Amino acid sequence: MEETFRPYIERGELMTLLDDWLPPFAGFSLYYPSRRTVTPKLRALIDHVRDYR
């Protein structure tokens, strides 16, 4: 269940649909072309996302 919408679901303002067909969410993935060509800005984003987990 998406954390953003959980309060609305708990209050009954929203309801979930198709839960039986919803695959588990393992998290976001970050795809980039090559490890050798990572710019400093992209490296900072990768490090931030990795630390956030």
Structure overview:
The chain has a domain of 27 residues. The protein is mostly helical and 53 residues long. It has two helices and no strands. The mean pLDDT is 84.
Write the layout of secondary structure elements.
Elements: H1 6-10, H2 40-52
Sketch the major β-sheet: none
SS-based structural class? mainly alpha
Order of helices and strands: HH
Task: Identify the overall geometry.
Answer: elongated
Average pLDDT works out at 84
User: What share of the residues lie within helices?
Assistant: 25-40%
What is the C-alpha radius of gyration, as a whole number of Å?
17 Å
- How many helix segments? 2
For the secondary structure, the number of strands is 0
Q: Ranges with pLDDT <50 over ≥5 residues?
A: none
Which band does the percent of strand residues land in? under 5%
Distance between the termini: 17 Å
Brief descriptors of the model:
53 residues; mainly alpha; 0% strand; elongated
Brief digest:
Helices cover 34% and strands 0% of the residues.
